[in-house]
Protein 1
Amino acid sequence: MKTETFNINSLVRPSVMALTPYASARDEFKDLKRDMVFLDANENPFNNGVNRYPDPQQTTVKQTLSTLKKIPTDQILLGNGSDEVLDLIIRAFCEPEKDTIITLPPTYGMYGVLANVNNVKNQEISLTIRFQPDEDAILNASDPAAKILFICSPNNPTGNRLDAHKIELILNNFKGLVVIDEAYIDFSKQQSWSQRLAEFPNLIVTQTLSKAYAMAGIRLGICYASAAIIAILNKIKPPYNVNDLTQAKALEQLSNLQDVKTQIALIVSQREQLISSLKSLNFVSEVYPSDANFVLVKVDNATKRYHQLIKEGIVIRNRTTQHLCDNCLRFTIGTPEENTLLLNVLKRLP
Ligand SMILES: *Cc1c(COP(=O)(O)O)cnc(C)c1O
């Protein structure tokens, strides 16, 4: 969408436009000084490190991300995992029983679940057999009710990145918002779309600390978008959605990126090794290209292989019921030791 023709206010649910957000005791947190006496939030006054409510705007984490990603803090929203962010986006823009989202299966199942939770129809438009978006079908489905298109790149469960030219064409012509879920971006050669927010007022990019940053347990999801979109999402987010322990852990990890970078490089090189080894197994018929920390593999009988691995104490994901994923298994890249063990077990399977 061109900046001149795009009006975010016409996409927001009228009830969200009209609402006054909950004003929490700590909404002016950034102006508060540590040595003040806090008798405003009914907290227990005895310090144990977590007796106070967390910063509702996560100012320090956002500033750190802002510096790292070169995106202003007013274009960042944080959530309790990116799953919360995705839910906020649907709730802000989709009127139940009226508006719709578009998803591109096979893809991340949570978009459809969140649509169901919000009583919003999920229109599915299949990826092509090479797992790329069908841009004509998507743009033909672009109507005023189709508020949000979810694109996952690199895509889960297929592992590939989606063609940047196709995505750009879609961004320029789709009438609603385009969410690009970049949960796996750090394992990819693809440049993040977060660096192109200024060009596309309808673009929302989500990322997470759950995968490459090794922090699935703290639940921290990130949303990058125009300041106007972020302001709308801020209106409806729960005031204290990211807790203090999470903010502290995230800061610690974001200020020590060397370890993360080393781990990512190792995972990527292990991925390439695993891909070439998997190709030599006689029950494997296809190993799909991956820009993520997992690989999708087509085998002779996915359900049989899945159960054989479980018996050996190895848990993988059986994706055979997913659209276009007949007899496909998804392997997450483990440590070098785990990957060697996996391969040894696979080689011995009867
Ligand atoms: C794992 C995953 C997420 C979930 O992220 P959280 O931040 O842990 O909620 C989001 N999108 C995709 C495509 C994923 O695979």
Protein 2
Amino acid sequence: MVSNRTFITTVVAFLAFTAICLIYGDFVTIPSNMTSSLSVPIEVTLSPETSERSILGSAKLCITLTNISPYEIFLLRWSSPLDLSAPSIGVVTFTSTKTGTKAPCLDMKINHRVPPDGHFSIDDQSIVRIPANDKVDAVVEFKEPKVALVKGEEYSAKAEGTWMGVWVNESGQKVEKLSMGDGMRTGEFASNKVVFKVPGEGEGPELRE
Ligand SMILES: *[C@@H]1O[C@H](CO)[C@@H](O)[C@H](O)[C@H]1NC(C)=O
Ligand SMILES: *[C@@H]1O[C@H](CO)[C@@H](O)[C@H](O)[C@H]1NC(C)=O
């Protein structure tokens, strides 16, 4: 089937791309003694996207990050549920409720360039602001070749991973830059599980484990 061939071609293309990134990219390595052990006051919620119906072989999920603190938060997108490559990096996993197997995902490892001077501007494109006691959300589409969801199958979706950088504006002072050492928090996150069915009576894409 076309979908299978497309899947393989795209995987190969992505592998080539990843190889290039590996050559030119810089790994993000944040010494653990530089990061704060304070917890990250962000909750991650997944919900079905209702304003628009899902199309065949794909799922749209609404991803909501809720700031449960009374301070403004700055979040580094990288590896978070709001990573612009979220469908490709496996931050959301899809498990078939029937077979218990995980839907294949590209599981790309993306290398990001750390700012040479060790801090982000608060206006950096990689930074998301979440106002105090407020939330941000994004509707994200998950489909081939990033994630292989089979038509007619029911999945349980869950977001899980590591916050790579979170800054909580609790100093009472104006923040201009976000330092990768000073006051940056890291930590784990896990969302709720949301169960949904990928619509489609017809033939599903040909997939192999
Ligand atoms: C963190 O550890 C590195 C390497 O072990 C060391 O060079 C650095 O001085 C430490 N930084 C702090 C703030 O302790
Ligand atoms: C951070 O908090 C301070 C004090 O509440 C506030 O004046 C400031 O606008 C906040 N945001 C930034 C980006 O500094």
Protein 3
Amino acid sequence: MGITADNLKKVQSNILRACQKAGRNAEDVCLIAVSKTKPVTMIEEVLSEGVLDFGENKPQELRDKYDVLPKDLRWHMIGNLQRNKVKYVVGRAVMIHSVGSFELAQEIQKEAAKKNLIMPCLIEVNMAKEASKGGIMPEDAIDFIRSVSLFPNLHIEGLMTIAPYVLDPEENRIYFRGLRNLAVDINRENIDNICMRHLSMGMTGDYEVAIEEGATMVRVGTGIFGERNYVL
Ligand SMILES: *Cc1c(COP(=O)(O)O)cnc(C)c1O
């Protein structure tokens, strides 16, 4: 077994343990293997272990990998998405996790209508209000979701957050709990076309805490594929 498969097994057993601790079903937590910057050969190794969900944060990279890998893979767009790159993602990704502006939602609507499909999306919320990050401020989320709920080709299925980089994952528990509470509040509004059933939260450093707080999708990169080398 290669290092990547080995890492994967560890992550999967940690997920299982976190689910048990929280009294949750392991089937209710989807592991997204974040393969950004990593080669197709490593993705194939993880794929051969039965993982089908992969995350990318660059539209062209998602497109290129989609085009060469088996079509039963499920690609998740998890990163900042510029409007002029929406065309690479709609029709390839099963979900866009990072809808954080009205203009982006509008562009996704346009592209999805053109391709005659419904695009599942999550709204990115900036729970820790970090200036360096995108996303909707939590207090604006309900109004924002009302405004994008009118787009017929967008299917808003939940919320996503990127928690701060911390050494102790416990520090992020309040943000994960906050995201879950926000989803509950949004569901109470009974907005047409809106059902909050997904919480995409938790990365290599904090996915176990996120699962304890109700994550339905965790996005793990380094924990599976190892450190990323950005200077190629
Ligand atoms: C890179 C990335 C991840 C994975 O980060 P790791 O710390 O390597 O697990 C998760 N979510 C988003 C949005 C990312 O860009």
Protein 4
Amino acid sequence: MSQRPRSEPVPVTVPFTDLAAMAREVWPEVGAQIVTGLLEANYIGGPAVEAFEQSWAAYCGARHCVGLANGTDAILLALEALSIGPGDEVLVPANTFIATVEAIVRVGARPRFVDVDPGTLLVTAPGLAAAITPATRAAIAVHLYGQMADMPAIAAVTRAAGIALIEDAAQAHGATWAGEPVGRHSAIACFSFYPGKNLGAFGDGGAVVTDDPQLATTVRVLANHGRHGGAAHYEHDLLGLNSRLDTVQAIALSGKLLRLDEWTAARRRIAARYVERLAGGPATLLVTDPEAGHVHHLFAVQVEGRAEVRRRLAERGVQTGIHYPVPCHRQPPLRRYAEAALPVSEAAAGRLLSLPMFPHLSLQQADRVCDELLAACDVRGTGVMSGSMSGAGT
Ligand SMILES: *Cc1c(COP(=O)(O)O)cnc(C)c1O
């Protein structure tokens, strides 16, 4: 129209994630299997679910896997199977997704928030040790962003205190610590297969893995209305609920599991590029422990003036996320559990910014994200406010 064309090219959008790219990759095998499963009337449970449970247990190096409806139920049922309930206190990092805490409150226990390490933003053994009280019955270690917490050290603390240890591995499919996978140092590890996770279904899904056959059986019974299975369809030994993995999700997960290592390798290449380009710059990178086999579910950095940086990135076609903008203990339903000061979690919540991270992101796109992030931070740093950039080319 009357406006003259902009001097800069229209920016190519870099999406925050691309779940459809993963679906397209597995569809040739998975699509046909889903049709077969549905036409054979396998909807809930059945051979596809059993096959996935076996594959996921094997992948995790665990004896047992129980498929569930979602990751929140995995944590809830793990707590319940460990007899955690009213009167009990459960330690949980303040920097986590709210589901970890929801599960604690849902079983009637009381969450006790623990602050996180300023470098990794993960829960630490000393942090947990300092928070234990006579009422503490369990601790949940959350492997946030794809990096495992120091499980050997954390397990030493919980063992000495005689309390149960649970892992929230919803963001840590395939992550390791000193070469060991999730689940080696805890009673039970909980996974989510929400579509956006590193291993994601075509809907909701979750699982627990454990070496303890009794715990696995209890979770399975609880997740199926307290039934022990077999012929006794209407005999309910425990008061359970309905939290089962279905056939469609199990087939999708088995198909994607074949690609998980390749997809993790792609995430690692992207993360390496981000580190190479951004280290020492205005955005503070999270620390990766040398013992951690990071699977980069998210690539979070910390920036000053986040709202402005994020707005500029959006203007330039780069989508970002925030994980998480409000720490759990500041969420209205959980405020009454906030006791101790949690300065690291609070400061991080105001500065965290998650950059695009998914297996099909190209290194060219990652470079583009870095260029735009550095430019956005630079504009802020020199005090030049938004609006002046559009004239930069003239
Ligand atoms: C996604 C997630 C959960 C919950 O999993 P759902 O399958 O969405 O119920 C729990 N904890 C963490 C850290 C998560 O990221």
